[in-house]
Every structure is written in C-alpha cells, then in structure tokens.
Amino acid sequence: MNALIYDFARWLDTHAWSTGLHESYYMYNWIESTHVLALMLSLGMLFLIDLRMLGLALPQVPATTIAQRLNVPMLAGFSVMIITGLLLFYAIPVRTSQSLWFRIKVVLLVAAALNAWLFHRRLRAAGGGWDAAPRAPLPLRVGAALSLLFWALIVMCGRFIAYDWFDCNADPAPLIGALAGCVPGQEQF
Amino acid sequence: MFLVRVMMAVTLPLAALLSWQAWGHHAFSAEFDKDAPVTLEGKVTKVEWINPHAWIHLDVVGEDGSSVAWMVEGGTPNTLLRSGIHKNSLPIGSEIRVRGYEAKDKRCQPACKANGRDLVFADGRRVFMGSSGTGAPKDGSDPRER
C-alpha cells in the first residue's frame, strides 16, 4: 500500500505543473494563503452552526435559519479550501504523502465527512419541533461537538505538515516510519 | 451581552492561534537552536529551489580534511529572489559562506541541518537568505528587522 502511494506520488511529481508550483515565485504562496483564508470562511461558518446547535451562539435565532443562511458561504469556502488543498498536495506530492501529520489529517477528514453525513441524517430525523429551542436534541449536539473537535484537529495537523520531525529522510523510528509510509530504500523524498 | 461573551470565547482563541501563525511559515524555535550559531564555508552541492523553503546543500571541509554534508534552509524562492539570490546564482561547486543556526535535531539526517541567515558569495557580496519574522535571533543579518 505504502509503495503504491509512493509510486503514485512520484508519478505526480514528474508533472511539469507540479514542479512549476513547487518552484514558483508567486503561485504557491497565493494558493497557500487562499487555502488558509478559505478555511477561515468555511470553518468560521461551520463553527457558528455547531455552536448554535450546542446552544452557545445566537440562541434566539432558529437553528435551521442559521444552518440554511450560513450553509452557502460555508460551502463556497469549503470548495475553495478543497481545490487549493489538492493543489498544495500536487505541488509537493512525495513529501506530503509521506507526512505523518498529513496522514492523520486525511483520516480525520474522512471522520469529519462521516460525521457530517450522520449529522444531516439526524437533522432530517429530528423534524423541526426543536428549532426555536436554545439547544438542539442530544444526537445533533454530539454531532456538532465532534465536528468542532475533528476540524480543530484537522487544522492543527495541517499546520504541523510544515515541520520535518518525522520526515522519511530524517530516519524516523520504525513504527513512525511505517505509519508515515516510508518505503525502504526509497530514492526520492 | 450573551452574544458578546460567545464572540469573545470564539475569537480570542482564534486570535491566539493566528498570532502564533504570524511567527512565519514555521517557527524558528521549533526546529533551530538560537544558541548554536554556525558559520559554514564550502562548495555548493545542490540547490532545492522549492516552496515553502529553499534548501542550499554544501560540502564543508573541516581542518582534518574530512567533509561534512550540510543543508541550509532559506526563505521562499520569492524571498530569496528579492534579496538577490536566484536559481542560477548558486551553480554547483561555487564557494559560499553561510551564517546561520544549527538545527536542534543533531542526527544529521540526511545532512546536518541549519537555518541560514546570510550568505556571502565568492565575490564577497553578502545577502540575507532567511525569511523575516520567524522568531530567529535579531543578529543584524535581516536588513528589515527593527
């Protein structure tokens, strides 16, 4: 599996556009800044929705009104965040795919997606009777709390990708190396 | 009033997080040792002209004749270009002198690492090769520091 990911990352790395971004004077910086700004928009909206469900923000406003109004800017920010995130990966595929932090981040992203899917199922199941209540029903509050937790951890992991403590070329401990996906005898890092 | 308190609860940690990020792409102190300044003189072996940080590799020959491989972290390609270093100004084999700080990680894998502050070309021209605002010591190498 790790060898497969490594080969795929190396193949991406042969692309002229990947190298171009990696060595660019402006594009990489713009993409990275856009990623962070889009993240602030997307998560800013998401966190307000989650906090409303928990009864910690705007308790007088009906919960579904908050969710519906903030959904549009949240999804707009989310789209830009995903696109710029993929481009950042594309610029540095080999090192990123073997970053322990990036791998934890991907697992957390899958967890956050599952949680969001469950949240929307529960939202439909709950009907609208609680809409004006300051706090949402318990299943929705659990989903909102998990959403806050997952996304906070995702941002932190993203931040830590910048550090090279566990990089494959820094000779990490065997277990960490295996989790990071280091391939024995690999030539490219 | 409740809303104000909630806004404070949300924005204060965010502000703290952002001011932490404002240290730079990554904080100097997380990886480099301000108490271990180092001056490296040697021949360029490789230049990684990459974002978010360029790396200049050089072979440093000690007094006993043994050579040690070093890799020195610089700013982004953009920052380096602005301070006067471009992709072709460091051909393989050219002699340079770099002042910087050693990495806290002393395992020297795959080479001994340092954070570069300034770089002197063979013709004596000195340029700043770091990024501003990373939390590196104010040692006079950054012309923009106050």
Molecular structure report:
Chain A is mainly alpha-helical and 189 residues long. Chain A has one domain (2-180). Chain A is built from eight helices and no strands. Chain A has helices at residues 2-13, 16-22, 27-53, 63-91, 93-97, 100-126, 138-160, 174-180. In chain A, helix 2 (16-22) packs across helix 4 and helix 3 (27-53) runs antiparallel to helix 4 (63-91). The radius of gyration of chain A is 20 Å and the shape is elongated. The model of chain A has no long low-confidence stretch (mean pLDDT 95). By secondary structure, chain B is of the alpha+beta class. Chain B has a domain at 28-128: OB fold (Dihydrolipoamide Acetyltransferase, E2P) (Beta Barrel), CATH 2.40.50.140. Helix content of chain B is 21%, strand content 36%. Chain B has three helices and six strands, in the order H-H-E-E-E-H-E-E-E. Chain B has a five-stranded mixed beta barrel. Chain B is elongated. Residues 20-24 of chain B have low confidence and may be disordered. The chains are: A mainly alpha (189), B alpha+beta (146). Chain A binds chain B through residues 21-26, 28-29, 32, 36, 47-48, 51, 56-59, 91-92, 159, 162-165, 169-171, 189, and chain B through 2-3, 6, 9-10, 21, 25-26, 30-31, 49-52, 76-78, 81, 87, 105, 107, 109-110.
Would you spell out the secondary-structure blueprint of this structure?
The complex is a heterodimer of chains A (189) and B (146).
Chain A: H1 2-13, H2 16-22, H3 27-53, H4 63-91, H5 93-97, H6 100-126, H7 138-160, H8 174-180
Helix pairs in contact in A: 2-4, 3-4, 3-7, 6-7
Chain B: H1 2-21, H2 28-31, E1 32-48, E2 55-61, E3 67-73, H3 77-83, E4 95-103, E5 112-120, E6 126-128
Parallel strand pairs in B: 3-5
Antiparallel strand pairs in B: 1-2, 1-4, 2-3, 4-5, 5-6
